[in-house]
Amino acid sequence: MTERTGPLTGMRVIELAHIMAGPVCGLMLADMGADVVKVEKPNGDDTRRTVPPEVNGESAAFMIMNRNKRGIALDLKSDEGKAVLRRLLADADVVIENYRQGTMEKLGLGFEDLRKENPGLIYCAVSGFGRTGPYAARGGFDLVAQGMSGLMAITGEGPGRPPVKVGAPVSDITAGILAALGCASAYAHKLATGQGQMVDTSLLEAAITHTYWQSAIAFATGVSPGPMGSAHPLNAPYQAFPTADGWINIGAANQSNWERLTKALGAPELAGDPRFANGHARMDNRETLVATLEPLFRKRTTEEWLAAMEAAGVPAGPVLSIMEMHEDPHVLAREMVVPLTHPTAGPTKAIGLPIKFSDTPGKVARPSPRLGEHTREVLAEAGYDADTVERIIASGAGIVADA
């Protein structure tokens, strides 16, 4: 489980992050080969207490966010803990943190402090609103970012309904992915120049990136788009339709797919209907279009329509539950659900790496660490002898090691 593959093999990362956005960055880098050491506070990342559910006493939330990482526990408020961290950072490529602005600086561990000791260090800061601007000092959460980004204004059933957030914490997850992209880009610069730099992204900016289509409409028209359920703001028909036993998503946005759809539905005359003749007309008459198509889709089951759409070449798919997605044969073939064995939880599963590399494949091979599981191992690699390691663990300075 210690063998590493992937394009970032050789990158050494110290993760000081907690909960979600920062840990997503760490797991992405780890999956692509980086050696990620997660540094937790003595009582652990708060995600360890995000329960239920638990598996044999282990938090399911913590396990899914922290696979492929090694783990140690340090009290960064103690001199000993800070000394150990500085030693770990002396030859690290990347440090990831998602504390409020000023927290690391108060500890003497801010970007300017650390770059003096390691000019090649890439300092990745993930926060609610970024390190500059009038909101920089605010704390941020996914819900807040979704609301301020405009996402909650375009999500939901339709106008006049209560605001709805996207079901997944998209700003947290996307911020972590953007941070990983930033770290990889800064690492390429470091390999060329030897110089590190600050990588700064936020939940708000991550959420804003999901508004490209709606922002384009607002820029062009001066009007803010509203929620449309599963429909598309620029194309139709492109949404979910009820069938005889469930729902099916239809992506017949362009003209050729629209014409194929009318034939698959047994209503080729709709292709010549002037109300639906082209994309512009279909968007102008979207409500009428939907009202015309819904009775047709209700005549057959989802599976029957999926077969018909595949035969006709119309992009379509079912609306799956999370468990159904986990069991989908294509999802499994793409290794997006992978088995792991945790030393306490036992057999479990994780979400796989969503990027495939032909020559340097990443992989999910290590379960999430127990609290302080790799403290002795990591400190030994940092040059501490065994007696010193045991002394500082026994000193009560907040350095925790798994028994």
Characterization of this structure:
The chain is 39% helix and 14% strand. The chain has 403 residues and is α/β, with parallel strands linked by helices. Helix 11 packs across helix 14. The chain starts with 11 loop residues before the first strand and ends in a 9-residue tail after the last helix. The mean pLDDT is 95.
What's this, in brief?
The protein starts with 11 loop residues before the first strand and ends in a 9-residue tail after the last helix.
Task: Sum up the structure in keywords.
403 residues, alpha/beta, 6-stranded parallel β-sheet, 13 strands, elongated
Task: Give the SSE map.
Blueprint: E1 12-15, H1 21-31, E2 35-40, E3 54-55, E4 58-59, H2 60-65, E5 70-73, H3 79-89, E6 94-97, H4 103-106, H5 111-117, E7 122-127, H6 142-149, H7 151-154, H8 170-193, E8 198-202, H9 203-208, H10 212-221, E9 238-242, E10 247-251, H11 255-264, H12 279-284, H13 286-297, H14 302-312, E11 316-318, H15 322-327, H16 329-333, E12 337-342, E13 346-351, H17 375-381, H18 386-394
Parallel strand pairs: 1-2, 1-6, 2-5, 6-7, 7-8
Antiparallel strand pairs: 3-4, 9-10, 10-11, 12-13
Helix pairs in contact: 1-8, 11-14
Mean pLDDT across residues: 95
Give, in spatial order, the strands making up the sheet with the most strands.
5-2-1-6-7-8
- Gap between N and C termini, in Å? 20 Å
Oligomer: single chain
Contiguous low-pLDDT stretches (5 residues minimum) are none
Strand content: 5-15%
Q: Biggest β-sheet: count, sense, barrel?
A: 6 strands, parallel
- Count of distinct strands: 13
Rough shape?
elongated
Structural class: alpha/beta
SS summary, helix count: 18
Rg result? 25 Å
Helix content: 25-40%
